[in-house]
Design brief:
Rossmann fold, alpha/beta, 6 strands, six-stranded mixed β-sheet, 339 residues, Helicase, Ruva Protein, domain 3, 3 domains
């Protein structure tokens, strides 16, 4: 049963009109009930919270008024410095993905959407996802798309604020983050995750970072009563500790797009500006080694040139010019770092 301090917190939230505080405390109680084996009670509380949030969003529209944007529960106190919160309208259909990756992400979304049904059979939905791949390959966008598909807030954890040089402080801040994960359902992104999950035997390893990693492993193993999604992304999977990798339900590897992927990506990004006569046999060879993010910028630059030229479609020369400019930029950056 709920402790007296939780009842007080519920009433204070109600009196103050702070619905998100009420929901957070209710989910705390649900987590406590689940740990005691009262699964049905915990699930009933979670369903009530979900229903209350849905009603709060649908209320204005149901009364014939313009529906406002879903209010986001912003982190407060110390959490304000530890994470950023945003709302996402991105969907998986907005992304250019291989069939295998799209299928795996769709399966995860379905498990989250039907988590109550899974729990009836003693199963839990996948909720810990590790994304690996080169910069610009779509890892961060995937977290945003998952948040959009599940209509959940996206919390981006600011690792530069979590990790400090003071003994024990980083682990304490990480504890605050995981308390939030347990209290408020959302998609929580740990970008550049190798900053936390690096191998404990690395030559540049220090005692504090070992404690942070051990704390992360411990917190990740704790029960997640809110069914929040924890998404970790890294460009350097080779740096990760094996113990970290084993803790994730799903590991998805991203690569650079192939010829078909390039064509699909550029067509999607160009939209109605994509001309039917684009010479793909000239365009695709110039895209070798470019990421999805770089291809998106190429499409945007070509689109702007077409608009300024007063035309309704992008032509091949504009795409080639944008590609050459992007490749020249990469080479210039490479020269700077090689000097």
């Amino acid at each position: 049963m709920a402790a007296a301090n939780q009842v007080i917190a519920l009433l204070n939230g109600h009196v103050d009109g702070d619905n998100e505080r009420v929901y957070a405390v209710a989910l705390q109680i649900a987590a406590s009930e689940a740990r005691q084996g009262h699964v049905k009670t915990a699930e009933a509380l979670r369903k009530l919270v979900d229903a209350a949030r849905a009603r709060a969003v649908a209320g204005p529209a149901a009364k014939g008024k313009l529906a406002s944007a879903t209010p986001l529960a912003k982190p407060r106190g110390e959490l304000e410095d530890l994470m950023l919160v945003s709302h996402s309208d991105t969907k998986l259909s907005d992304m250019t993905l291989t069939d295998v990756i799209r299928s795996r992400l769709h399966r995860l979304v379905v498990q989250q959407q039907q988590r109550e049904r899974l729990r009836e059979y003693g199963q839990r939905p996948s909720s810990k996802l590790l994304l690996v791949g080169p910069p610009g390959s779509g890892k961060t966008l995937t977290a945003s798309a998952l948040a959009g598909e599940l209509h959940l807030p996206l919390f981006t954890v600011r690792l530069e604020s979590v990790i400090t040089r003071f003994l024990g402080e980083s682990a304490a801040k990480l504890r605050l983050v995981f308390n939030q994960i347990a209290q408020m359902r959302g998609v929580y992104l740990f970008d550049e995750f190798d900053a936390i999950g690096g191998k404990r035997g690395a030559t540049n390893d220090v005692g504090e970072m070992r404690r942070v990693l051990n704390s992360f492993l411990q917190f990740l193993e704790e029960g997640n009563a809110t069914d929040s999604l924890v998404v970790a992304a890294t460009n350097h999977p080779e740096l990760l500790d094996r113990a970290v990798i084993r803790r994730f339900d799903e590991i998805i590897e991203y690569g650079l797009p192939d010829g078909d992927g390039v064509r699909a990506m550029l067509k999607h990004r160009l939209g109605r500006m994509a001309g039917r006569s684009l010479a793909w046999n000239r365009i695709v060879p110039l895209t070798e080694g470019l990421s999805q993010a770089e291809l998106a910028r190429v499409a945007d630059e070509a689109t702007k040139e077409a608009i300024l030229a007063g035309r309704k479609c992008v032509n091949t020369e504009e795409v080639l010019a944008a590609l050459n400019a992007r490749r020249a930029m990469r080479e210039a950056v490479a020269d700077i770092f090689n000097d």
